[in-house]
Amino acid sequence: MRGLDQTGLAQKGGAVVSDLRITSGAVEQGARIAGQDCDLYLACDPLVATDPNYLRVASPDRTVAVMSTTEIPTGQMVVHTQVGFPAPGAVRSAVDGAVRQLVALDTGALATELFDDEQYANMLLVGAAYQTGLLPMPASAVEEAITLNAVAVERNIQAFRRGRQAVADPDALRAATTGPEPREAAKTPPPAGTDELVARVTGDTGGELHRLLTVRVADLIGYQDLRYASDYADFVATVARAERAAAGEDSTELTEAVARYLHKLMAYKDEYEVARLALDPAVDEEITAAFGSGSRRSYLLHPPVLRAAGMDRKIALGTWARPAFRVLRALRRVRGTRLDLFGLHPVRRLERELVDEYRESVGDALALLTAENLPVVRRLAELPDAVRGYEDVKLASVEHYRAEKARVTAELRESTALVPAES
Fold first, then answer.
1. 315-317 and 299-301 as β-strands: parallel, antiparallel, unpaired?
2. Which of 152, 185, 198, 396 is least enclosed, having the fewest CB within 10 Å?
3. Integer angstrom CA distances of residue 190 from 129, 202, 219
């Protein structure tokens, strides 16, 4: 009799654990596996696999763990960005120390490499588990079950076989997934005015700050217009001057943080930006290169106006919608004005407010900036990293951001008040 324990993570419902027993005859006992009674520990999610409540079934004398190392963010990680994954070594060690043998595969990356779709990750894991010899059934029975299920049959069978190959002949699998060197994409010159705006901050020097600004200034010109990008560059230049005065000519860490996160807040993804990105020629080239010139494509959208009307699902638009996207893209210059009908939505108002709030909080911090409190001011500048998601998720992240902003601002003022005045 084989005892199998399968762990994973549902999209919304949390951890999913299945206890399976495979026997040659009828057995009168519960399906739940007792402590240290598991032969195969099949872990589709590495974080769930390390939970002691589930790992208790493993035995260092009998259990083989077949585990995906693909990092799958939990709901807490999406909402609270300060929650991160533990170190990969810690995850592996937690499982490795409880079992006789550990087979670990980055099935998400492997599925994407082989099939351009991460959904085949679990079938790859099943194939790897089969190859350990702890699934007491012929491979033909597994493939027949896949066929009877009648869902992406060929790809699922190939995923099962590639998973077996990952254990039986990993060198051959590596050779199969190592394609030709990717062709270097042709570099598109930045829009007119980019170099001049970047020079306001960095002068003629290069370095990381120059690179950061070149990318972001060019993006904001395309996002809205030259004046919008100019406002961004002028504020970053103000930060750069204050940082050099407080911490020396070579100090750029605060300016780099503001360059990153002011851009993030200014380039919020609204209806105009979705249209602009949908029409990006580089995206069309990638799709054609991957699927051919005759490939069909659609855009899955769920705009706030439809959500407000009660539609709870995305709508699929074909390439026939591209003329409408062109109109929306051309209208991006009314963003934030009285003509911006989309901007009346509460979330869009909030997104614009965040830009002003950020500039104000950073500007106030610059008035207190010294070489000693530079790390605190930089932390304040980096807080927008927590602002992400859409609708309710974004609203929750903004609430957390504002609470952290208040806390760090209070810490900055307190630390400044404690600095003795010069005699």
1. antiparallel
2. 185
3. 50, 17, 9
Query: 269: which residues sit within 8 A by CB, 6+ positions away?
Result: 277
224-259 pLDDT, tens digit each: 999 999 999 999 999 999 999 999 888 999 999 999
Whether this prediction's pTM lies above 0.90 is answered by no
The Cα–Cα gap between 402 and 387 comes to: 10
The alpha carbon of residue 408 and the mean position of all alpha carbons in its chain are separated, in whole angstroms, by: 26
Q: How far is CA 308 from CA 31, 217, 223, 301, 312, in A?
A: 46, 34, 26, 14, 9
- DSSP type of residue 190: P
Let me know the angle formed at the C-alpha of 34 by 33 and 39, rounded to the nearest 5 degrees.
60
- Taking the C-alpha atoms of residue 17 and residue 8, their distance in angstroms, rounded to an integer, is 6
What domains are there in the chain, each with its CATH number? 2-177 (3.40.920.10), 194-270+345-417 (no CATH), 271-334 (no CATH)
